[in-house]
Structure formats: C-alpha cells, structure tokens
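Page 37, top half.
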Amino acid sequence: MPVVTKITTQKNSGERYNVYLDYGKGEEFGFGVDENVLIKYDLKKGRELDEFELTEIQYADDEKKAYNLAITYLSYRMRSEKEVHDYLKKKEINSTIIQQVIQKLVSHRYLNDEEFAKAFVLTQMNTTSKGPNVIQRELKEKGISDTIITLSLCEYPEEQQIQTAVKLIEKLKGKYKKLSQVMMKQKMEQALAVKGYSFSIIQEAFQRTNTEKESDEAWEALQYQGMKVHRRFSKYEGWEYQQKMKQALYRKGFSIDQIQSFLDSMEEE
C-alpha cells in the first residue's frame, strides 16, 4: 500500500494541498486535495492508504471542487437549481456529484427555487418592461415548477402591469407614428403581446391612453405611406393606378375618405 511521504501547500491556493506517496519505488506526486478533505481523512506523513481509500478521497475531493465551483457561480447572483445543475454539467462534473452538491446547497439555503422565483419576478417587474407571460416563460426555462411560478407571479399585480403597458404604449407611439391609426394600434397590440401582456391588460392600457392621432399627424402618416405606394405604382395610369393605390392604402389601414383625399391632393400637384 502507498504511504504518504509529504504534504505541501499548493502555490495558487492556500486551501489546497499536494500529497506525495511512496509505492515502494520512491516518492512521487500522488494527488491534490482540498483542506477539508485532508482533515476529514486524516491525511498526514506516514499514513498508509489502500486503493479503496484513495478512490474515496478522490471522490470527496471532486465533490468539494464541484461545491466550490457552485458557490463561486452563486456569488454573482441568485440562481435556480437547474441553472447550477447546467453550469456544473458544462464543467463536466459527474452527474451523481452534481445531485449531491445541489442537495447540500439546498440544505445550506444557498439554493431555494421559491425565493429565486420571487426575486426574479420583482427584478423583472422593476427593471424591465416585460409582462408576466414572458417572465413565466423565462422561469420555466430556468427549471422552476408551475406551482412556484404561479405563486411568484402574484408579486406582479395587475395594476403594475397596466402602468408598465401604458408606458410602453407611449414609447411605441413615436415608433409607429408614420402608420395609419388602425395599423399603429395593431402594431402596438402585437408588441405588447410579445412583451408578455395578456389581452385584458392590453385593452385596459389602451383605455387609459390617448392613441388617437391629431389631424396633422394622421395626414403626415397618410402622405408618408401614400408616397411609398405611389412610387411602387407610378408606372400605372388612370383607373388602374387609382385602384392599385386604393387597395394598397386600404390594406395599410387608411379609410376610403382618407385615401380619396390623398389621391385628390396628388392630382392637384
């Protein structure tokens, strides 16, 4: 059986040690080990180790290294159990060790999916414009159970959702100002849905916001879209030109009266 001949501190870590062994042919490097493992297995000069003990020590050290990796990963922000699992898996940690590390982290309260989900919802609510449906999807991707997701989303009250949606509508007005009134509202509704807001929240937000264009804004949008369509169909003349212009502008959400006004203005020029 090998005998421990020397134990030295590793240069880059005061908590890890190099253990040297003699298998009967002289001293050679045996393995590196964490301080806690060193103490747990009473490693010291002159101690004999059988193959079972060597395997057990190596496993314990691998587990300790994985635990330390997880602690460092958690030091930057809160994580879900799945996030830690996936991180350790990327580091090519043994799956059994990963489960043991996660159990230990949970027992030490370094991991708690309920607390994580609640904090995640509050952070997204206060720092982003995401609606609950998007937040729900992101929590699902992080491995949070449906029950915990439902509970955590209670932190995002409907009134807060409506207020955030109203702010989004105000921002989107500028983005879609060159569209017709109808198309602008459709685009804003789609944008809010993509952001994760429900139909009822979107409708309530619109009721609290004035999205009706002023007459000059409506005319400016009509001119902008009308000239784009005109450039496409300028090669046509007479009735065919009129029909193509009317059909295209109608699809863009302008009324028959608005379209006729634009066409009349084009004829005057």
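Page 37, bottom half:
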Amino acid sequence: MPTLFSLSCHPCPCALAHGLPARRLTRAIWQGLACAALGLPLLAQAQAQAPGAAAAPARAASAATEATEATEAGEAAELAAVTVVGRAAPVPVELESHYQPTPDASTLRSLAPALEVPQVTNAVAAQVLRDQRPRHMDDALMNVSGITQGNTLAGTQDTIMKRGFGGNRDGSIMHNGMPLVQGRGMNAAAESVVVLKGPSSMFYGIMDPGGVVNVVSKKPQTERRTTVALSGSTYGHGRHGGGLTLDSTGPIGDKGLAWRLIVDHASEDYWRNFGQRRDTLVAPSLAWYGRDTQAVLWYEFRDYDVPFDRTVVIDPATKKPLDLPIRRRLDEPFNQMWGNSHLLQSSIDHRIAPGWSGHLSLSYNRETYDANQLRIQAVDTARGLLTRRADGTRGALSTDAYGTAYVDGSVKLGSVRHDMQFGLDLENRRIYRADMIRAARTHEFDYRNPVYGRVQPSDRVVPSDSDQSDRLRNQSLFFQDAIHFGPRWIAVGGLRYLHWSQVAGRGRPFKINTHTRDGVWLPRLGLVYKLDSTKSLYASYSRSVKPVSSIAPHASGMVIDSSIAPEKGVSWEIGAKLDVPGGLTGSLALFDIDKKNVLVKQYNDATRRQDWRTAGAARSRGIELDVAGEVGRRWSLIGSLAWLDAKVTKDPEFAGNRLSNVARVTASAAATYNAGQVGAGQLRLGARARYTGRRPGDTANAFWLPAYTVADAFATYTLPVGGRPMKLQLNVKNLFDKVYYPSANNQYGLAAGDARQIALSVGFEF
C-alpha cells in the first residue's frame, strides 16, 4: 500500500499527543496535505498494488459496522445495522432509487448512524432530486423543515435561511463537507443535499447557528454506465428553452480505479418579459477504491450568464407590491451577471489499523463575475415613476483554500466504548470586487407604460467604493468523543479551538473598516438514548461563533476591531429520531437558539444605502418535523412541517421585530406512486406542495411578504428501446401559475417566484 496516504494522516494525532506547538503542528499538517495532493496523480500506479480493490466500495460503506464488530458483537445482535456511506465511497447502487436518505459521512465527519447523533440531519436524496429536478438549492431544500429563501443577490446566489439565520456567502454552504464560495452550489453533479441543523461550529468552525447545507457530489462507479438526456421547456408567452446532459462513468481496469464525466448545458429564455439564462457545467472525477484506502478527486467548471433581477417594488401607501403584471421587469435587458467558477477537491480515507482510520480533504474554489444592475432607488406612485441608477460590478473574485485532516476510531475501556475523533482545519477565504460602477445621474422610468432602451450601462467607476475586500483566515483544532454505555446510552462531548484573523475594507486608497484577530473555545455536548434499533431520543447543547465584519464604513465612522465581540450563538435542543431500514426516516426537534452581538442592517431611504449596527441580539425557537422514505412497495414520500418564532430581542430600534425573510410556519409534502408496468414500460407519478407563511421583508418589519402555496407535478415513463432503457420525464413546476414572492432585499428589491414551467426530457442509458 502506498505510504503517502498513511503519512498524510499521521501528523495530526502524533502532534496532539506530544503537545507540538501550534505553528509546528500547522506546518506538519500542511506537509501532509501537500504530499497527499501531489500523490493523487499516482493513483493509477498505486492501484496495481491493491489486488481485489474492486470490492472496496462495499467495505467502505460498511466501515462503521466493521470498526466495532469485534467489541460489540452482543450489541450488534440486538440493534440492526444501518448503511452509512464512507467519505470517499460511492452510494450503493441498490439505494440510489430510494427517497429514504443514505447518511453521508462528509456531513457529520463520522460514520456514526443518524440515530446515534444528538443533532438533526435532513437529507434530500438522489431520487428526490431526479424526480423534482430543482434548478437551485432553495428549491431542493423546500422539502426540508425550517427553510426559507433570503436575499439571493437578484437571483444569482444561494441564500438559505436555516432556523431563522443565514445570508448569501455566509459560509454555511459546503461541498463534500468543504466550504464553497461559488454563488450557486446546486448542479447536475450533485448526488444529494444534506442539512445539518443547529449550531455546527464544532464540525465546521465559523458559522451562523442555524445550520450547514452540504452538497454531496456524485462519485465514480465501478460499473460502466452512460446516460444522455435532452430536454425542452416553456414558460409560455414565447419564453422557451432547452438543454443537454451527459453522465458517463465506469472502471479503469479491474483494480478499483474508476472515472466519471458529467456535462450539462442549459439555454433558455427568462420567464419574465426579457432576459436569457445560459449555464454550462463540466465535471470530471476520478476515484480509487482500494482495500484500505479510498480516494476521490473532483473538478467542476461552470460558465454562466444569468438575469440579475429583483425588480418588484413595494407601494409605500399599501405596503404591497405595485399592481403590475408579474412578468413585467422594471430594469433593462442589460441587467445580467456573467462569470465562471472552478472547484477542485480531493478526499482520502485510509484505514490505519482495525477500528481506526485517517481522513484528509483538500479544496480550492474560485469564482469570477461581472454584473450590470439598474438599481431602483425611489418610487412616485402619484406620477407612476421610478427613480433608477445604472450600477454594476466589474472584476469580482472570490476564492477559498481549505484543508482538513483528522483521525477517528474506537477504544474499549471495560464495558464502555469510546468513538473518538481529533484533527484540524485550515482555511483562507477572500471575497473581492475590483470596480464598483455608479452612474453620475439617475433616470426616471414610467412603470405603467414602460419604454425600455433609453438607459445604457454605465462605465463610471467610483474609487471610494471600489477594491472591496474581505479576507478571512482561520485555523482550528478539534476533538470529539462519543461514549457508548452499553447498547442504548451514548454521551457525546466535543471541543474545538478556533483562531481567526479578518481584514475588510474598501476604497482607493484602501480604507480598513474591519480588522480583528481572536480565538475561542467551542463546546458541544449531547446525550442519546436508543429506544430500539429504529428509534432514539436525544438532547444537545452547542455553541457557534461568527466574526463581525463590514466592508463598508459604519455611519458613525467606527472601525470593527478585536474589541468588538463576534456574533455568538447558544443552542439547546431535544428530539426524537426514526430510521427503519428500507422504510421511513424521520426526526422531531424542539430547539432554542440565542444569538448575541448581531450585526443589524436596514436600508436608509435618505442615503440610499444600508445602515449597519453591531449592538443586537436575536432568538429563534421552534419545532420541526421531517420524514422521508418508502411506504410499501409503491409509495415514496418526503415531507416537513415547522413552526418558528424568530425575532430581534435586543436593539435600539428593532427589539421585538420578527427576523426578515423568516416565516413562522413552513410545510411541504411530496409523494410518488410507482404504478409498475403500464403498456410497454414502467410508469411513475408524483406531486409536491410547499407552503411558506407570511414573513417580514426587512428588519424594520415595514412591509410583509404574503404567504403562498406552490404545487408541482411530474411523471416518468421508462421503456426499452433497442434493448436499452429510455426514460421520458414530464415536470410541471408551479402547476397553478401562482404569483408569489420568496424573499426581499428591501422595499425596492423583491424576488418574484418563477411562473409555471412545463419541461419534457428524454433520457437514454447505455
């Protein structure tokens, strides 16, 4: 077995055991990370030393059982085994068609079954994604409780509000358990999406207390398979589109090496009266499934040109959207964002000894974009006029370099088993915008009788607003121990030490508005009681931290430095879980989250800018119910229900107000019926309904977004053609063409939900 894999995992435990100073520890780990990264191209040579490796995926998927087999034989006889997919192992083929989620170790950084974890994880399985065909992350996560959409930067970024907390590029979206800075994380290479609820700083460091979203990528398979799909769609009103997807995978030789290539291209008209969306993805990957080592290397390239649209405006008199046709945009056709992104990740698992394994993950991702934005700044309803200004961004660049290495394993001390994990994380993230464009003058626009094309994009760069930069570096050491007192009681304790430095500001010459350097201890405590092999109860306590930062200067001229405390969250949670193999998985959670030192923002009509303050506190408490899986041989379902009380508890102006874009009640239900053989092929039918309650559109609660219910439906028909399966799939989204507003930035920037779309795809498998 090549030594580079084991060497890359060993510095962490040895250094911790001998008290190695932090600087030398960091250097040692980076050396290990570099060795592993450089060794990935040698996988083709290494596979020759691993006879019989082709069977490794099955061994990796059952690693959790193997690790404790010798010491827990009696317990295993009483409690049924649950499949957990290893961090670098593919999902078993027999589970790919289920609505019941398969736990993925990249989210919890553990092979522990969900019943043994004192925290809720809700997953949208691969089959759900195939059936519903969500375009963006928030659409997929409407299947999960307590989720709403936040400010998406005019429909160009994922912004997921989890238990009341979140923001665009808040660091809460992961890709295979590693941070993502790309605006959109959902694409054709996604296998499933997992939400880890509640404070997750013990696992991921700097984080809001609402939770983490992890996109799990498709991995190469050792069985050859190629699928080609052609699609066409329409929103009506002459707005049409089409796409092509290729997904091909297979083995390289017979020693456990495998490859996969995913190519996806979509080109369509935007559903409103103008705009185009073009999106191309190329995602190759390579994997090696050896006897003791599994490794995956992913790469994703995305090129896009999409509408930059948030032109629904609140009438100041009625506090409701202007009474206009929903398809009418109030900006110009040049309002687009265009750019590209690169994502390179590797994940390596190595079994060091029976019951002990090392894990190493590396990630680098980069996104660049330019955008035009005709910004609405005022409305005069008496004259039917809007005030608009041609703004834009040029040379935006976001990067993130990340590495984590840890060791986990089991030790039996008497009758007590300890499942331990210890390791470190390193991250360097930068968000930068070069030229900020602001037109010298504003223009009036008649929204009742619009005439487009009278305003052109501006090229006026404002030096004082340009060179916006936010750089964050952080390093962590962490340890966790899950103590098994027999087959039913599990106590979990974890601790992370996190140190960070952050510099943010803007302007030419550059002016620093944030400069902090600090460290904090983050504990996690939990208790699990397993009622039987399918049910458990749990309780947990955890903390989170997120440094306060601002690129823009505060109205008072204050600079955020280390004297300003970071945002801190504290959560208490109790709940129950159900996991019936081959049946249903469910969770019920009651939680209370308090967050203090909150950075509060509100749009200022006088200055036409966002005002920020650092003195604030917020609380979110509620109850969530989720269920997913199979009911009998023909029915599959996924559903959720949440009640959430999220409000500002401390602020000079906004104390007692509800948190913006956060609904008190959300619910969803989706069901699929497998009709079996109908004519020459197999027929499946499904539908989904999702409800989002009334919620405030800003921190001041000056206006509210109305509640809405949206329904979707689909049907698939699979029949043999030339001895190969051909699948026809029809999807109808927003079945009843409901007008709704999923989120708002301020009173001049509401998002409009997509109109009814009918899409038909034809897929061929070879």
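Margin note: Residues 22-39 form the longest helix (18 residues).
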